[in-house]
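Hey, I'm writing a tutorial for new members on how sequence and structure tokens pair up, and I'd like a real worked example in the thread rather than a made-up one. If someone can provide the structure for the chain below, I'll link this post from the tutorial.
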Amino acid sequence: MPIPVIDLFAGPGGLNEGFNQVRDAKGKRVFQTRVSVEFEELAHRTLELRALFRRLEDHDEKDQYYRYARGEVTRDTLFSITGEHAEHAKREALRATLGKSDVENAAIEDHIATELAGAPKDGFVLIGGPPCQAYSLVGRARRTRETRAKFESDHKHVLYREYLRIVTRFRPAVFLMENVPGLLSASLSGAATFDLIRDDLDAAGYELHPLNAKAAGGAADDPRAFIVRADDHGVPQARSRIFILGLHKDLGLKPRTLSQAGNEPSTVADVINDLPRIRSRLSKEPDSGEAWLAAIRHVASYDLSSLGDRFSQSIREKLDAMHPNYPLGAATMPPTGRQPEKLKDWYADKDLGCVLNHGSRGHMRRDLMRYFFWSQYGRIFDRSPTLSEVPHYLRPEHLNIIGDATDVPFADRFRVQLRSRPSTTITSHIAKDGHYYIHPDPKQCRSLSVREAARLQTFPDNYLFEGATTDQFRQVGNAVPPYLARQIGRLVADILGA
């Protein structure tokens, strides 16, 4: 019987997906999610859809899901024709808000108790991460004009207590709590938040352990030992997060740490180069391939001599080689027949028959020139330029960006993702604009698509994100990389002897 999992603050299900991908020697799931709780409507729709996919997969009935993914049937039709499997998915994915009210808290806890009925005592795993905006270093920097009292009254700042309340009531054998590194320097009422969490969990009967193998051997007293770098474990993204592993003291469980990937880190090119090439589109004016290309080529009308002969020549050559015939991308696109260089067995689904969530965004004419410049700079110099290295005519038109632009807040707000390295951290900010996520190919001259961001987050290709493009980006950015989550799930399975 699979080990039950309860997932709180589940988002679109990245952590959840990783645990459900852990298989035993016979190919059976080691874990099975009983309840995943998420309040945001479209993330919940994605979570519910993925719960249905796993159910259909377990019963070898995925064809109806593929029909929906390809746009051949509606969601209502999919959930209607899949009957019992759909009802199971709806019970698993619960749309609710922890901490909203005592009444809603009680309803959530009753639902968890019902779905755990029959499970062995202390025989389940709790996973999830409270919303992290209040712990984010950037988030706190933007709050400097707020009073401390207002900051500490922020509902998101104390949501970890809702997680701990579930731990205290249901007493899982193991829990896993994920958050941003800013948690380590956060404080509440003058006390370090991490110390408060550690004291609460110790009183509840749990030992806290880091997953970071580098920190093994008594370093758990250092809170930094709880930071895990995703790119150390095969994820093509420089992403650091805190993972707190809690083991029930009464069960005699032995902690383990994650093993690091033994080969070179996965890079952006390793995992997105096989996807269909698409162009961006012009926004706020009529779009066509020719108008789009003309907007980009306008950069050659400026004086490029200050860039140096090598770079200025490379710009002219690349502009001459560009063409307007790439498609714009779409919710579904034909596959290229190629495969990613790494993790292909993880991403691929030969029965899917299409590429999902690979539409292109619109960009303003002036931003198109910037995207072209940044991507070509990255191609030539293998790094992203700062604003001080960008000609004044391509800098953002803000009053504080003057002179040599060496002392500007967020001076790297335009950033190209480099082919030869893991990407920078994919965050929910990608939903607002693509400036920090410029595609490395100048010919496509655009920001990343949802599918490319999902690849960098290691979502399998058959993982469909619901909602408008902005909603999809937000879901991807808020998730735990499933490939990393599977490795953590395997570690938890080993701890439990599964």
